[in-house]
Design a protein that fits this description.
Strand order of the largest sheet: 1-2-3-9-6-4
CATH architecture of one domain: Orthogonal Bundle
Number of helices: 18
GO molecular function: ent-kaurenoic acid monooxygenase activity; heme binding; iron ion binding
GO biological process, one term: brassinosteroid homeostasis
Oligomer: single chain
InterPro entries: Cyt_P450 (IPR001128), Cyt_P450_CS (IPR017972), Cyt_P450_E_grp-I (IPR002401), Cyt_P450_sf (IPR036396)
Largest sheet: 6 strands, mixed
Structural class: alpha+beta
CATH superfamily of one domain: Cytochrome P450
CATH topology of one domain: Cytochrome p450
Cofactor: heme
Keywords: Heme, Iron, Membrane, Metal-binding, Monooxygenase, Oxidoreductase, Transmembrane, Transmembrane helix
Amino acid sequence: MDMDIWLCLIGALAGVYVFVFGILRNLNQWRFVTRHGRRYNLPPGDMGWPLIGTLLPFLKAFRSGRPDSFIHHFTSKYGKTGMYKTHLFGSPSVIVTVPEVCRHVLMNDEQFVFGYSKATRILTGSKALNSVPKPEHRRLRRLIASLISGNEALSLYIGHVEGIVVTCLEEWGSMKEPVEFLSEMKTVAFKVLLHIFIGANSAAFIDKMEKLYNDFHLGFMSTAVDIPGTTFSRALKARNELIRIFEKVLEEKRENLKNKVGENRKKDMADLLLEVRDEDGEGLDDGCIIDLLIGFFFAGHETSAHTIMRAIMFLSENPETLLKAKAEQEKIVNARPADAQHKGLTMKEIKQMEYLSKVMDETLRKTSLAFTLSRETKVDVNLNGYTIPKGWKILVWTRAVHMNPEIYENPHQFDPSRWDNPKRRAGSFIPFGAGMRLCPGIDLSKLEIAIFLHYFIHGGFRLERVNPNCPENHLPLPTPTDNCLARVVRDS
């Protein structure tokens, strides 16, 4: 009798095993691949479990402090094909790690569109750059190009950035207690963006806007279900409040323009967006301007703060690199005429910061803030010999490209000299994307980073971390768990 019970138990367990691993484990494979027969020649890979796909191994890799192990699983199991099918973030997807294929996907607007989540599309707005159709996208890019990347506009913003940076560094340098350097940098980045975009410098207003943006930002990682109390609901509420604030700002600016109030003051980006006209004399409506401003804040806030923090961390850990950067900054300052009236930086001087530019590029490569860039196929696409169905996501895995030892020797080493030879494989450096959908704020972001690093390095500041070996979180962005708790020390 006992033997019968054991046999029944073993049989039941075997049945469960067959059901779980023979049916459930292959359900995604059947649903998205097998049932199409030979219609699609998909790359090798793992479709994972129903609904969650390969999300669990993804989270395990990123939360364990070894984010690259997720891709290493695919390469070790399926070979170095550079393309792998999977089911991730709720969609059937193909991960791409071959530089040339990555570039092709990012440059091809005929076959691919942004693959952002529903929450992201709602929160960024219907008139944002990532939402509008291709013709309107091109028109907007033409209109705003000179406002965020032209030398004339960038020159206007230098003074805005300098004043905030110098004040903050002096304040931190006088403090005896350590600060959460990343948190402080986020505040600095926010002050800079508010000052540049809408001319705001009130402490109370900046604090209010920063709190709204924190709620807004969290919503991008949420499920788009508007139920009171949820992360998405709070983000949507924050967006609506931001719209009301920007509507009031634009209304006041139009009134001032009509009455010629403050004609001699420095213009901010909102002023320029109100004035800009296309070849037909058409300007931008308020809804478009507001969605653009919201998008600029979202894209520029976190990126600048994290990049500056990482650059300073890397420089602190590499004394020889810091000395080279410091020598360049001193040379630029010492080259100013003795009777120069302008004591601050100029665009000409910033363009002379060749070594600092390499430091920034190496920081962006090594950090890979956006570990992937998402696109979606508009039609069935032939990609590198594989056929990808319409509606699938293409995950351009930037981190895998930037940390590939076949492209970058000793990729985990911080080495700005690797940029002495700028000739690299197409698509091997894509921190901001590529093509028409390239992040439009690159030059403005790099301007802000260069100015901060200049005053930090030339001013003789040092970062003394309290917990230099503290672990890192890798989601949503690579971040020290203590937010880089450190003392900002100024050498006498």
